[in-house]
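[09:14] KT: can someone run the structure on this one? pasting the chain below
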Amino acid sequence: MGNPAHPLPTPSTQAGREGFAALLARPARAVVALDFDGTLADIVPDPEQSRAHPRVVPALSALAPLVAAVAVITGRPADTAVRYGGFAGAPGLDHLVVLGHYGAERWDAATATVHAPAADPGVEAVRAELPAVLEEAGAGGAWIEEKGGRAVAVHTRRAADPQAAFDALRAPLAGLAARHGLIVEPGRLVLELRPPGMDKGVALEEYAKEAGAEAVLYAGDDLGDLAAYAAVEKLRAQGTPGLLVCSGTAVPELAERADLVLPGPEAVADLLGNLARQVGS
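[09:31] RB: done, structure tokens below
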């Protein structure tokens, strides 16, 4: 697709090809929205060690001035994604937006500030009870990640049998979340407990409307990105073309629904970089 000097992959679906064509034809009216972990950054055993792939910031710096808007939509706190992504002060990213906690928080590069609601009391109550729940479930090796009072996640990647620990925790964590008015968001060997009412689909749809998007690209890698996929499909039905990109194949539910499947964050960075070179040439 496009200029041979800047090769771009061809989406496998007609809707995806139409979405990609619309983005290439009208980049200044397009929104590029991206998950962070697993999409811009490789999945690592310790989420605190996660960092954007080295080619991501240069690619986004080249692409962002050419499109209507670039947004990173993540379950992480917004300021954490900014730090781990290396986005603050990067050239060309003056208008980058990071929507953290599934859109409940917002960091704008233009002001370098985070707008966030108060911490949820249900999250604090769950955090206090979690150690006992993990012990009772026999989930040895599972560990807790606090997310700034807006969510708490339980990771099983370090357990002796990560999938068995994940499966053993699903029911007790669902019960714990329900008792405190929260929901459970499953991911790749992680279960996140957070308040209801906000997800990546809501965040993407609202931001696309705010930016006046005439084409949307969304890239993700995990179950939490399904809501954003649904938002793009809704926008398509309303006449706004869109392209669904999946980073990796670890989550079949996402890969099977995508228009374009890439091997992982390095390939996503290359897509963004080649896209910038093509629309800027």
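[09:33] KT: thanks! The longest helix spans residues 162-179.
[09:34] RB: yep, looked fine to me
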